[in-house]
Design brief:
The structure is a single chain. The chain starts with a helix and ends in a 9-residue tail after the last helix. By secondary structure, it is mostly helical. The longest helix is centred in the middle third of the chain and has 29 residues, at 71-99. The protein has 9 helices and no strands.
Length: 226
């Protein structure tokens, strides 16, 4: 029997939704995720073993595979809520740009991307820190969910920039240059906030970032809504 099949056979049955067994399982999964995230931030993904995680979680090492099939599955579970928030916001912006009939509506659609930064910082600071720490490393092993998210963010940034240029919002400079500038600026500002650098009120960063980008990249004659 393969290792994967053995792990699946060992998996704890979740029980009825809302029942005691399901509740206990969810709590144990959360304990493992929290322990792993703390260690990943302290040491990096490659330096943390299952044994390390389960010791921090104060659980038996062998029970790890009752909840997660692999390190990669664990990282995917840790990143899932932050990933859903980011990708949902990018998709909303993308669709809003497609149907926006006025320049103001188009610019407002573009600015929704900046708004998600505040939500990420408030709700998922640990996941944001882990993303920034690991997203530029090789796409291998436990890091795959993070690098995959980075690739999807880049795809959205390119598509949104292309749409914005088509609408005449942004200057017609190479799409990749414009899009990657935005991604890089957002990542650097997120890092600065998490490192508590002196950049002013963190809650104002999303709006300031959006305005800086649009002021710097907007096409001639485009007026930004105040």
């Amino acid at each position: 029997m393969s290792a994967a099949r053995t792990r699946r056979r060992q998996a704890v049955r979740p029980g009825p939704p809302g029942g005691l067994r399901a509740t206990n399982r969810a709590q144990r999964e959360l304990t493992i995720r929290d322990a792993a995230l703390t260690l990943f931030l302290e040491r990096g993904l490659d330096a943390v073993s299952v044994d390390d995680i389960m010791q921090r979680a104060q659980m038996a090492k062998g029970s790890f595979y009752r909840y997660f099939e692999s390190h990669e599955a664990l990282v995917a579970a840790i990143m899932a809520p932050a990933e859903a928030l980011v990708l949902r916001a990018l998709e909303v912006c993308r669709k809003a740009l497609a149907r926006a009939a006025t320049k103001d509506a188009q610019i407002d659609a573009y600015r929704t991307v900046g708004a998600v930064v505040a939500s990420l910082l408030m709700e998922y600071p640990g996941q944001v820190r882990l993303y920034l720490q690991e997203c530029r490393a090789p796409n291998a092993g436990a890091r795959r969910p993070i690098v995959s998210l980075a690739e999807r963010i880049t795809w959205y940034a390119l598509d949104i920039t292309r749409r914005a240029q088509t609408h005449g919002i942004l200057k017609p400079i190479p799409v990749a240059v414009s899009a990657l500038t935005v991604v890089g600026a957002a990542e650097r500002l997120l890092h600065a906030v998490l490192q508590e650098e002196d950049i002013g009120n963190p809650l104002e960063v999303p709006e300031q970032l959006t305005r800086l980008i649009l002021d710097g990249l907007k096409a001639e004659g485009v007026r930004l809504p105040r």
